[in-house]
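Objective 1b of the project was to move from sequence-level analysis to a structural picture of ligand recognition. The entry below was assembled by the postdoctoral researcher (A.K.) and checked by the PI before modelling. It contains the amino acid sequence of the target and the SMILES of the bound compound, fe (ii) ion.
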Amino acid sequence: MELTKKNIENIKTWLKNNLDEERYKHTLGVASCAEELALKYDLNPKKAYIAGLMHDCAKCFSKDVSKSYFDKVDILEEEKINYKTWHAPIGAFIAKTEFGIDDDEILSAIRWHTLGKINMTLFEKIIFLADKIETETRDCEWCKCNRELLEQENGLNKTLLNCYRATLKSLCERNLKICKLTVDIYNNLLDNI
Ligand SMILES: [Fe+2]
Ligand SMILES: [Fe+2]
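Corresponding predicted holo structure:
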């Protein structure tokens, strides 16, 4: 799919019809933040904008609808534990089949934006991060502190580590299970700061 203005407008219309208001607002925030981070790290800003726009496209699907995609997507067994993570592999599938997005960088960034993975590419990292630090719906202080971290030496990995730390803390506090992959990524980031 060509990333034309008309296509972007089509995607936005689809998202408006398939997301709730808050999620749509977050989506626009992630798209802008991804574009900004792409410019900062010399990546393609248009591709980053599209990945940001599409990253949560399957977030508001019901549990039943989401489950109906299980045999079509590459969902991990441990991802099946937590309903909140299902929209990432399903979202990549929707981006490809509904919108004809065939760019592997965009599809992979959507696929891995919730759990992340070890040794993410720079493009995957900025989409993951944009999801956490967009300023439309995320807490102001949280965004400010991460943006300061980002300016430090090896700032990208330090900021990612900070996000994983917050996720682990929040999962513990809510008595929720932690995927082994999340712990592995955390440990790997600790080795790379
Ligand atoms: Fe998401
Ligand atoms: Fe998101």
